[in-house]
Design a protein that fits this description.
The protein is of the alpha+beta class. It has 4 helices and 5 strands; from the N terminus they run ααββαββαβ. The strands form 2 sheets. The chain has a 3-stranded antiparallel β-sheet with strand order 1-2-5, covered by helices on one side. Strands 3-4 form a two-stranded antiparallel sheet. The two termini are 60 Å apart.
Length: 174
């Protein structure tokens, strides 16, 4: 038997001894015949105890996950409510940016281009020699530039103003 095998066997015996002591299975002797029914039964008993502990720990983990998930959802809901209050506040002010001791509120309005169908847009581009992508899809950035430059829009084109609200808190550690 090699030194490695002897060390492995020694570690296995020590582990078994610790388990047997932990689960009050002291009447099994470590040097007892490994084929003993009594020893095998005691080891099965220890495994059963470990399985119960694993199940209990799994249940505790699941309960903790559920608890923290609910807590996060509740706090997120509260944050959304408070964000709505801030957005309402800045909408009633004549300012786009408000700096406060605990953070900054910003209100930004941009234009979002909502294009008609690709067929209508392709015809628009072809009639005006606006480059299109090889896949026969309008190049929206070029079309947007053309519309801004000439003011001419394809049929069915809509320009929608989009207002976005952002805030930044002055948290410690940021």
């Amino acid at each position: 038997m090699s030194v490695f095998d002897q060390d492995t066997e020694k570690i296995q015996y020590e582990l078994l001894e610790q388990l047997l002591n932990k689960y009050d299975i002291n009447d099994v002797k470590i040097d007892e015949n490994p084929d003993s029914h009594l020893r095998a039964d005691r080891v099965l008993y220890a495994i059963g105890k470990l399985q119960n502990e694993v199940m209990e720990l799994s249940e505790q983990r699941d309960e903790a996950v559920h608890f923290y998930t609910e807590a996060i959802e509740k706090k997120t809901k509260n944050m959304r409510y408070l964000e709505g209050m801030l957005e309402y506040f800045i909408n009633n002010e004549d300012k786009k940016t408000i700096k406060l001791p605990n953070g900054t509120l910003k209100l930004r309005t941009t234009k979002k281009f909502e294009y008609p169908s690709d067929d209508v847009l392709l015809n628009f581009c072809k009639e005006r020699d606006i480059p299109v992508v090889m896949t026969e899809k309008p190049n929206l950035s070029v079309v947007k530039k053309y519309i801004k430059t000439t003011g001419e829009e394809p049929e069915g084109m809509e320009v929608v103003e989009v207002t976005s609200f952002t805030y930044k808190t002055n948290r410690e550690g940021q």
